[in-house]
Amino acid sequence: xxxxxxxxxxxxxxxxxxPESRVICTPWxxxxxxxxxxQYPVDYNEPLASVVHQARDVLxxxxxxxxxxxRFALLLADLAxxxxxxxxxxxxxxxxxxxxxxxxxxxxxRNPYYAVVGGGILFxxxxxLRLDITLLVNAERxxxxxxxxxxxxxxxxxxxxxxxxxxxxYEKLFAYTSLFLGMGQAGLQxxxxxxxxxxxxxxxxxxxxVPSPFFKGRGxxxxxxxxxxxxxxxxxxxxxHDFMKDVLDYVDQDDEISFPLRFPQPISPAYVxxxxxxxxxxxxxxxxRTSYATMGHDxxxxxxxxxxxxxxxEKMHQGLYYLIALHNLGKMSEEIGGEGAIVDELxxxxxxxDPGANFFLNGLSHAYIVETAMVTGRLDAISGPAIDRIxxxxxxxxxxxxxxxxxxxxxxxxxxALGEVGEAGKLFEPRPAYGGTSAFSWLVDQFxxxxxxxxxxxxxxxxxxxxxxxxxxxxxxxSTEMFDRFAERVGWGDRCFTSGESRVRxx
Length: 507
Fold this sequence. Notes:
Strand order of the largest sheet: 1-2
Structural class: mainly alpha
Helix content: 55-70%
């Protein structure tokens, strides 16, 4: 039976969201890009901790000597569980050894993009777990500066996917985004603009190198949102250049630019258009400069016909983006009369869209609906059979060789989403669909030797496990000092919340 991670979500829906979840809400940001892992914390419980340890043990049977990012992810997930366990006493020497092991794992990562993203996650995790940042930055070593230097090693057009060669500096832009967020959480954002190099300016200057309106809009939405969260958004608007306007204008010209994009499955033109637009609208909301939503034309109004033209699995992907942007802009009632109709439509698709038909469009879609139902207080609409279909779908996710080697990608989404609603155990219990073994054991058994063929897709499982471990820090720890300060700046300071079951404040 699905359960909410916070009773306030069931009572108040999006009004109870923590600031972090309003800024970075969707599974794509977390599982693919590693931003803001560990949202929707719960009190420590052994079943969830056991999932992290079971997954680690199963992975180690297939990949006996994990290196680089995967080793880092497994170590950090373990540290999170250990730190959150009630009564745990980890002395400083032990924490120092753990911090050294985590940093060494990232130093050993051969891909500089993953090393930097891991660095951002590490700082973010230390802030959430309330661990001593001086274990990472002190007179003897400065891991923040190490990671900033590593950014310089990231080369353009290194992503090996359907659009290889057409990304520009997209990876470097995202690496900066992750590191900026982590350093902001750790109180180190001053390093980004001090000294001879202004790293924020350098990141903003990368925008012009991303040729696709789709990738430029989607990528910059996260960079802008993070800069707003860490208090450096003035450089987007007030430093002699309006980068927000530049990106909006570029996305507006997507028909004229007509940049060719390829996806693992056929995608409608409406999907390609709505994704950068709706994510940029949320970045506008997060910045607090809502006039950009109507600059030149009504950007909310243009979403309605695009939404209508989406296919069912595309709506499942885009619904949460759409709802969170409307909520953050305060336009939910005005634009769609409330979230109810859209949520009802999306939940119906759980019975229509086969999550095992392919790894991308269908495979990712159901995790989005679970999370959409959770944040809108509609988990009662998620049935047990719907959860079972998610848990069993990987057995027939084999239509193409690409689907077979990419199963870890949607599995990470589902592990994250089911973990948030108390159903991660479904992926770790014996199931007839997998011949009596668990979905996770079956998944890993299908991997090639040491996961060589699956490659970076396996790293998303690492992100999911870090997220599960960080969630054990306690329901009352759903925010950090940085996000609390941000919420006050943009007027999000009052919200409905529950700490355990004992107190509720209605905004």
